[in-house]
Each structure stands twice: as structure tokens, then as C-alpha cells.
Amino acid sequence: MKPLRALPLALLAAATTIALVGVGDPTKLTPELAWAPPGPGRVLGSGEGGVDLLAVLAHAEAKSLALATIVSALGFAVGVPVGAAAALARGTFERVVSRACDLLQAFPSFLLAMAVLSAVRSPSRLHLGCVFLITAWVPFARLALAEARVLRSAAFVEAARALGLSPAAVLARHVVPNVVGVAAVQLGASGAALVVGEAALSFVGLGARDGVSLGALLDQGVVSMLRAPHVLVLASSAVFLSSAAMMAAGRALEPKR
Known about the structure:
The protein is an all-alpha fold. It has helices spanning 3-21, 53-89, 91-106, 109-117, 125-136, 138-151, 155-162, 167-184, 186-203, 214-223, 229-251.
């Protein structure tokens, strides 16, 4: 992997390690240090209420990465078999899956998430994950559908059918394994979009109620833009590095040429 691609991954790994090892409570308030700039006692300074920005950033990035990874993996696990099965089945099932993908991709996923989460009294990351999963499987299903449409006429698939294999066996043994590599490239882009989506929902007040998120930190940064600009700089940099890390991880899955 090239150094520039490895850099965001290394930074994110460092943040996750710091959060796991322990840098203090990200919700602990120290009012006398509110909006304090970086210094000896606080390496990255303090935010609203005197929270330690290093602790908040480390925990927020670790949680954002975990959420994006889990939801992307689940979307991959759901979308690839569904798309491949639809292409192999043809007919009504293929049209239904294709139209479902069109509908979900045409509707703004952020508005859908806002509509669902606004009905939840106290959103958690489980709620966020479930909402994201509504649309997370779609790009994987679309890629699998397109690739499987080519594979269903391949000689080895026709030979498997001629040998008497059931459609399920043909799907599991010959179609899905050949679709996985193509669809896996989408994991990085989906993960990056989920990082930004989680931050955006938290920014507008629909994130996890613990307040430990990149979006909540962005909100603090906007409020304190003039008196504590370091908060906004750190928060926006963290969102960029997190999404870049997910994209870099996805690039590592690209087939070698």
C-alpha cells in the first residue's frame, strides 16, 4: 500500500488504540477548562464544558469506525446474495429487486434517516445502524445484479445447470464467489459515506445520546468558531481522516491487474 493511502489508516488505528487503552472519560466535564487551547495538560485542548478533546476524538472515531464497518459488512452480506439471486432467477424477482434498488437510491437516505430517527425518543447507535442498513445493501445488490447478469450466461454456469445442480447450488458455488470480488470494492465507499452520514445526523441532533460523536464535536466547533477555532479544525479533520481511511481500506480490496 502506498504511504499516502496508509497514512489515514495509521492515524485512525492510533485513535482507536488510544480509545481502547484509555485516555479518560470523554463525557467528564471540567468547566474551568472550557474551550481551553491545546496545552501541556490537554494535548488537543478542551471543548464545551471542559471535555478533553483527545478523549472525545479517540472514542468518537473508534465508534464511528466500528459502526461504519459493521453496517457496510452487513450491507455487503445482504446485498450480494440478493442481487446475484435476482439475476439468476430473472423474471419478476429480478424486476422487483431492480426497482427496489432504484426506489431506495432515488430517495435521499439522509432524509429517510431523519424521518425514522425523529420518531425515536432516545436514539442509540443500534438505531443508527438499523436505519443505515435500510439503504446500505443497495449498492452491493446493484453491483452483484449487474455482474451476475453476465455470469448467468457463462459456460461454467450453463455446465453446472446441465449437471443437474439446483439454482441454489449454482448461486452458492458458481455465481456468488465470482461476484464477491467486484462488490467488495464498494465497501470502502459505503464505509466512508456512513462515517459522514453518522456525523451529519449527530450534527443536527439525531445521533447517539451519549454525545460522543464526530458530528456532536462539529456542532461544538461551529458554536465556538471564533473563541475556540481549534475545536472545529480538529472535528472536521477527524471526519475527513475517518472517511479517507475507509476509502483507503476499500482501495486495498480492489482486484490486482
